[in-house]
Amino acid sequence: MSAMETFLADFDAGKDEGRYIPGELPSLPFEGGKFDIALSSHFLFLYSAHLSAEFHLRALQEMLRVSREVRVFPLLTLDSASSPHLHCVNEHLANNGFDVEVKHVPYEFQQGGNEMLVIKPV
Ligand SMILES: C[S@@+](CC[C@H](N)C(=O)[O-])C[C@H]1O[C@@H](n2cnc3c(N)ncnc32)[C@H](O)[C@@H]1O
Fold first, then answer.
1. What is the mean pLDDT of residues 7-35?
2. How far is the CA of 94 from the centre of ligand 1 (A)?
3. Closest ligand 1 atom, CA of 24?
4. How many domains does the chain contain in total?
5. Which of 47, 70, 106, 119 is most open to solvent, judged by the fewest CB atoms within 10 Å of its CB?
6. Within a domain: residue 20?
7. CATH number of the domain to which 117 belongs
8. CA dihedral of 90, 91, 97, 103, whole degrees rounded to 10
9. In the prediction, which pLDDT does 14 show?
10. Cα(21)–Cα(38) distance, rounded to whole angstroms?
11. Would you say residue 23 lies in a domain?
């Protein structure tokens, strides 16, 4: 609720100032290297039954194009199972010049969902 209230209080000013820009993975409307960090919360890996491993990889590659670091949380599906895409996506990124780390975090919204993926260029 606190996060929602903070967002709603900022939304009109943020739109006027051009800080809220619509976009849709796997293609983002930003130039390369525009951001320090890109976050995906409760989207990638959560909808593994609806979105393919290829979509996940393309989405993460696009986030890595526009940002120096990518973080994804949590790493579970809607059924609270470990995502079936996680291993192959991580392996592909690790074999293509990225440092890929799964970190435990103290926040757990979904039961068992206390892991975050952190990806950076090596
Ligand atoms: C479960 S909500 C999570 C919202 C918020 N990130 C959070 O953690 O509370 C999933 C979000 O994914 C967004 N979404 C759906 N398809 C998307 C796409 N192709 N690219 C980027 N975001 C997408 C939806 O608009 C929605 O806001």
1. 97
2. 25
3. 20
4. 1
5. 106
6. no
7. 3.30.110
8. 40
9. 97
10. 14
11. no
Atom of ligand 1 at shortest range from CA of 51: 19
Distance 96 CA to ligand 1 centre (A): 26
- DSSP reduced 3-state for 51: coil
64-118: per-residue pLDDT in tens? 999 999 999 999 999 999 999 999 999 999 999 999 999 999 999 999 999 999 9
- Ligand 1 mean position to 72 CA, how many Å? 12
* Upstream peptide bond of 26 is cis (omega within 30 degrees of 0): yes
**Which ligand 1 atom lies nearest to the CA of residue 25?**
20
Residue 9 domain-assigned (yes or no): no
pTM: 0.94
Rounded to 5°, the CA angle 102-105-108 comes to 115
What residues does ligand 1 touch, defined as CB less than 6 Å away?
24-25, 41-43
Q: Would 70 be classed as within a structural domain?
A: yes
For residue 34, the model assigns a pLDDT of 95
For residue 37, the number of C-alpha atoms closer than 13 Å in the C-beta half-sphere is: 7
pLDDT of residue 97: 96
Mean pLDDT of the chain: 97
pLDDT at 49: 97
